Amino acid sequence: MTEDEILLDAEERMEKAIAVLKQALAGIRTGRANPGLVDSLRVEVYGSSVPIKQLATVGAPEPTQIVIRPFDPNTIKDIEKAIQASDLGFNPQSDGRVIRLNVPPLSMEVRRKLVGRVRELCEEAKVAIRNIRRDANKLADQAEKDKELSEDQRDSVKEQIQELTKNYEAQANDLAKAREKEVMET
Fold it and tell me: Lower CB count within 10 Å: N or C terminus of the chain?
């Protein structure tokens, strides 16, 4: 592999790790309603498990309420069942056309637990980024053994990989800090 291929591969994989972190953080509750809270919800309908996004539009018209509008009104009971069976802690209220979820305010204890979860997710992302660094360094060493890179090129690639690692770890920390701040706001 060439220098550029190794670096590009590492950078793409680190981007994916950050994207996974962003998606996971979107599912963490803050003090206000956010459609991302139900994004991970899967609904048993038509004989298979389907993401809620494929069955309905999800919005947050008010800071304390999420509104789910099914495309097919016949799926409303299935969506309600999925919400009740989930660990989201919401009690769905339906009028036959839309489902409303009232988002209760968070207690300080729950906020602390959520901040702990944010930190866990951040650490998981950083571990993934470090694993990518390890893999990229192995590729650089292998490329040097295979005479595709000189020793100096290998060292240069490793330095660049380390810079990428620092950059993406900092991004993960920034995302986590921002989410922690949102969770702790009252």
Answer: C
Nearest Cα to 52, choosing from 91, 16, 89, 78?
Answer: 78
Nearest-angstrom CA–CA distance, 72 and 79:
11
DSSP letter string, 65-119: EEEEEESSGGGHHHHHHHHHHSSS----EE-SS-EEEE-PPPPHHHHHHHHHHHH
Residue type, 105: P
Which contacts (CB < 8 Å, 24+ apart) does range 47-53 have? Answer: 52/79, 52/82
Q: What is the CA radius of gyration of the chain?
A: 22
- Residue range 176-185: average pLDDT? 90
pTM, two decimal places: 0.74
Torsion of CA 68, 70, 74, 79, to 10 degrees: -40
